[in-house]
Amino acid sequence: MTSHHGIEILLTRPATNGELHRARRTVSLAANADRTRLMAVQPARTPGRALRSLRRRLHHLLPIDVLTTHYPDQHGQVLLNLEFSRTARAAIRQAATARGQRPGVNPLESWRPSYAASPPPRLAQ
Known about the structure:
Elements: E1 3-11, H1 17-26, E2 30-31, E3 37-44, H2 47-58, E4 64-69, E5 80-82, H3 86-98
Antiparallel strand pairs: 1-3, 1-4, 2-3, 4-5
């Protein structure tokens, strides 16, 4: 079943009127006053797929820095979608190899804040 996911788009610089116009032909967007942050609703099965598909649709239209899910999931976490340069990807692969991880594995996956170690408590109903 396909759900709709709220996604926040952070730009590297304010988008021009032309960039916003072209992007809005592809996706419905809401912009803040200084046009550095946008909101979109993307249909997808999972939040990760929503982030990836929105980046694919907009990467050539807007100066995207970070995409993030706007609402936390059931564990209180939000997803980030970053695009690294080749140099940064090489450094990440090198760091993963130095830690004994496979280069294809995200070295940050093993990091979790202490509050995310256990699921949030349920409220009594």
